[in-house]
Amino acid sequence: MSIVKVIEVIASSEKGIDDAIKVAVKEASKTIRNIDSVYVKDIKCHVKNGKITTWGVICNLSFRLDA
After folding, report:
1. CA distance 59 to 28
2. For position 48, which CATH number holds?
3. Please, what's the b/e burial string for 56-67 (b: 16 or more CB within 10 A of its CB; e: otherwise)?
4. What is the three-state SS of the chain?
5. Considering its fold, how many domains does the chain have in total?
6. pLDDT in tens, the chain (67 residues)
């Protein structure tokens, strides 16, 4: 039987939403093994002078715990 843990992470990117999600997974993967899925809970953008400067995501990452 597997046990799955879920953590919440926040990441951002100047390139876009897709890149922000990739940043979340890449950074979390440095210390967490067995990441199975990403659930994007929320998306936001920072705006300066009428233009989007950064995209941010709040994600739940699910990963299996080692037995």
Report:
1. 11
2. 3.30.1660.10
3. bbbbebebeeee
4. CCCEEEEEEEEEECCCHHHHHHHHHHHHHCCCCCEEEEEEEEEEEEEECCEEEEEEEEEEEEEECCC
5. 1
6. 789 999 999 999 999 999 999 999 999 999 999 999 999 999 999 999 999 999 999 999 999 998 7
